[in-house]
Amino acid sequence: MGKLEGKVAVVTGATSGMALASAKLFVEEGAYVFITGRRQDQLDAAVKEIGRNVTGVKADSTNLEDLDLLFEIVKREKGSIDVLYASAGMGEPCPVGEITLEHYDKQFNLNTRGTLFTVNKAIPLFNDGGSILMTGSIASVKGWAGWSVYAGSKAALHAFARNWVSDLAERNIRVNVLSPGQVYTPTQEEVMADPEMKAAFESLIPRRRMGVPEEIATVALFLASNDSSYVNGMELKVDGGTSSI
Questions:
Q1: Per-residue three-class SS string for the chain
Q2: Whole-prediction pTM value?
Q3: pLDDT per residue over 210-232, tens digit each?
Q4: Which residues are catalytic?
């Protein structure tokens, strides 16, 4: 029996990378998964790759009407939720002194506001004893030049988690943050195509290599399943040791 046998999971932003790998693993472990993405062609490809026990919903996490539609579909098809992995997010560098309102709004609207309202709208459908996890980033604790807005938008998620565990204590719903480090995803292929750039990037990691989406997915499964039944309100960094040095 799988670790999520009979469970219903929602994974946002799951058309590629870490969230897609997590959605695939959730299905392999027995869950029925609803995934979201903003582009229909990518969403269709992700659904085809997962192959079974999956519904794709075209949704932008910054659009509250899209989120309402997502959870209406979940309610109609499955009735309730056991696991929510709020993973939709993005990041763009910009040094202080050059930050624009557009740069700020783009990242806080998706990473912070979008995550908050994804969780907020999911709560009425949640079964007691469920698990919520959100994608953070070690950028919020490392302090890299140019990444202050992104880091701030992700740092808020742990503050949310610490407070929501109290809000949801009576229902035994756990809330945690999964904060990846440098992970090789399709969005980084262009940057990592330069061998010198790749070597410089990996030199920052004690393991001396970037992670892969499947390594994040196994930790997402841990946080989603009963294996982490006593883990609550935590930020779990999955970064090969980068944030420790």
A1: CCCCCCCEEEECCCCCHHHHHHHHHHHHCCCEEEEEECCHHHHHHHHHHHCCCEEEEECCCCCHHHHHHHHHHHHHHCCCEEEEEECCCCCCCCCCCCCCHHHHHHHHHHHHHHHHHHHHHHHHHEEEEEEEEEECCCHHHHCCCCCHHHHHHHHHHHHHHHHHHHHCHHHCCEEEEEEECCECCHHHHHHHCCHHHHHHHHCCCCCCCCECHHHHHHHHHHHHCHHHCCCCCCEEEECCCHHHC
A2: 0.94
A3: 889 999 999 999 999 999 999 99
A4: 150
Distance between CA atoms of 25 and 241, rounded to whole angstroms? Answer: 24
For residue 233, give every residue at least 6 positions away whose Cβ sits within 8 Å of its Cβ, in sequence order, or none: 161, 162, 164, 165, 174, 175, 176
Q: Which of 51, 47, 49 is nearest to 35 (CA)?
A: 47
Per-residue pLDDT tens over the stretch 96-145:
999 999 999 999 999 999 999 999 999 999 999 999 999 999 999 988 88
Mean pLDDT of the region 57-74? 98
CATH of domain 8-183+212-244: 3.40.50.720
Q: One-letter amino acid identity for 105?
A: D
User: Of 12, 9, 4, which Cα lies nearest the Cα of 28?
Assistant: 4
Integer Cα distance of 91 and 110 in angstroms: 10
